[in-house]
Write a structure and sequence with these properties.
Number of helices: 4
Largest sheet: 4 strands, antiparallel
Shape: globular
Strand order of the largest sheet: 2-3-1-4
Strand content: 15-25%
Order of helices and strands: HEHEEHHE
Distance between the termini: 70 Å
Radius of gyration: 24 Å
Number of strands: 4
Length: 145
């Protein structure tokens, strides 16, 4: 019995660091969201104006990081192109909380009402969630080349 207890304690002390390592939370990887907006016919400029004048500031107000925005070049099936952009968040849970707060913001609700006074400006939205690969080059800071 005298030999068993010290041996058991020794084994437990060896196992404790390994268990602590597996129980430690891993650093959460940022979540990126690729969003694609299909403007209503003839409404691409109104959609871009809404983003330019209001939406980006409201996204930032609610903790969303504006990564980049693009206008798709016109094509036969999308003569106005589409608006494509990427946001980032610390986690998927943060994303859900940010969008909930954004959607409930009275300023955003006013912007939507005013920008859609003559009809909807978006017909469809696609959303794709992504994480950065371990081989991706780092994102360049805004304004660098």
């Amino acid at each position: 019995m005298r030999l068993v207890l010290p041996a058991l304690l020794a084994l437990l002390s060896l196992a404790a660091p390994a268990a602590a390592q597996t129980a430690a939370p891993q650093a959460q990887q940022p979540v990126y969201e690729l969003r694609i907006y299909y403007p209503a016919p003839g409404k691409a400029e109104a959609l871009n104006a809404r983003f330019r004048n209001h939406t980006l500031k409201l996204f930032a107000k609610h903790g969303m990081h504006n990564v980049a925005y693009w206008n798709e070049l016109p094509r036969a099936d999308a003569p106005d192109g589409r608006v494509v952009y990427i946001l980032s968040y610390p986690s998927r849970e943060a994303r859900e909380a940010d969008w909930k707060a954004f959607g409930a913001d009275p300023e955003w609700q006013k912007v939507v009402a005013e920008s859609e006074a003559n009809g909807k400006i978006v017909t469809k939205v696609e959303s794709i969630f992504m994480t950065m690969t371990d081989y991706s080059p780092p994102l360049a800071p805004s304004g660098s080349r």
